[in-house]
Automatic annotation (TrEMBL):
Coiled coil: none annotated. Keywords: Calcium. The keyword Chloroplast does not apply. InterPro entries: EF-hand-dom_pair, EF_Hand_1_Ca_BS, EF_hand_dom. Residues 22-57, 60-95 form the EF-hand domain. It comes from the Eukaryota. This is EF-hand domain-containing protein. GO terms for molecular function: calcium ion binding. It comes from Rotaria magnacalcarata. Pfam families: EF-hand_5 (PF13202), EF-hand_6 (PF13405).
Length: 105
């Protein structure tokens, strides 16, 4: 099983994707929301905290944050920059479609 499938399966069945998707639709706003300590860096832990705010907890939050972070960290430097967040909404949409059985990676 690929990490995309693991991440899609980690999405709760009753998860309302619209709230999280809307939160990530503006990269600058999303970055500010993710950068809780204001250090100008967004880490995997920051992403996991955001997922928890939207009701994704425990192992699901860990699996999803790991996968989404890996997809967003375009230059592989271990942090997410505002420009990396441009693809966040699409990644979430793809995972949601996969969860529903309508998409494949």
């Amino acid at each position: 099983m690929s990490s995309a499938h693991e991440a899609a399966n980690a999405l709760p069945s009753n998860f309302d994707m619209n709230g999280l998707s809307n939160a990530l639709s503006n990269p600058a706003q999303a970055f500010s929301m993710l950068d809780k300590n204001g250090d100008g860096r967004v880490t995997k832990d920051d992403l996991q905290l955001l997922l928890q705010q939207f009701g994704i907890n425990g192992m699901a939050a860990k699996v999803l944050s790991k996968y989404i972070f890996k997809q967003l960290d375009a230059n592989g430097n271990g942090t997410i920059e505002p420009s990396d967040l441009v693809n966040a909404k699409g990644i979430l949409s793809s995972l949601f479609k996969m969860k529903q059985g309508g998409g494949a990676f």
